[in-house]
Amino acid sequence: MEKKEWYLEYEIQKNRPGLLGDISSLLGMLAINIVTINGVHEGRRGLLILAKDDEQIVRLESILNTMDTIKVLKLREPKLRDRLAVRHGRYIMRDADDKKTFRFVRDELGLLVDFMAELFKQEGHKLIGIRGMPRVGKTESVVASSVCANKRWLFVSSTLLKQTIRNQLIEDEYHADNLYIIDGIVSTRRANERHWQLVREIMRMPSVKVVEHPDVFVQNTEYTLEDFDYIIELRNDQEEEILYDIVHQNNMFSDSDFGGFDF
């Protein structure tokens, strides 16, 4: 029988020498293999483990619950956030009210790239929005994630190198495995109807689409935030507010200035 992967997370109640060794020995006695182990939060450890049947996991949980040195928090089939937590030693922050919104700061760009790459690898339609102030690293993170996921990325609208507004794609650019990047501000402020026809065509494709500034995008289109599968927020630090007033002030940017900012 093929072994099944599980995620175990526990909080240390009484930290003493040899605690991890005790748990490792217990797993060994139950013939459960440890794949990866790491601290995932202050006072918490996460483990990816392999068991040949569910009965082993039931016995493990029963024994762990008798130990006064730890408190079992999670014992389940691993989710994407679990795998990334063990890999990077920290959990992705998730909005308490909106479960599809995930928050990152610049110090977590490696975690962000890894997270988006895993999303990009999934087949079929996926619409992802990314919020953030200018020059925080949004576009670069999307491109890096595309490389990690072995996806070809295409700018439909962007300001990364120069202002890009596409009105059409060539034949080999229509592919379900491609990743399409749309800047909601550029498309809203500079695009014509031909561009929007292309955007609608791409949105109907069974592929991954990433929209920078999704709030601006939905204000000027028939799409809503409910259409997005994930919303990612990237900040310079935890206290930074993501504000769009700066791009709506009259005469704030000339055409040349606008092309020079990484929104």
> What radius of gyration results from the CA coordinates?
22 Å
Q: In the CATH classification, which architecture of the largest domain applies?
A: 3-Layer(aba) Sandwich
- Percent range for β-strand residues: 25-35%
Could you give the count of β-strands?
Answer: 13
Intertermini distance = 51 Å
Question: Briefly, what CATH class of the largest domain?
Answer: Alpha Beta
The biggest sheet, with number of strands, parallel, antiparallel or mixed sense and barrel status, is: 7 strands, mixed
Say what the CATH topology of the largest domain is. Rossmann fold
Uncertain regions: pLDDT < 50 for 5+ in a row? Answer: 247-263
Coarse shape:
elongated
Order of helices and strands: EHEEHEHEEHEHEEEEHHEHEHH
Protein name: DUF3388 domain-containing protein
Domain ACT: 8-83
InterPro entries: ACT-like_dom_sf, ACT_dom, DUF3388, UCP021288_ACT
Pfam families: DUF3388
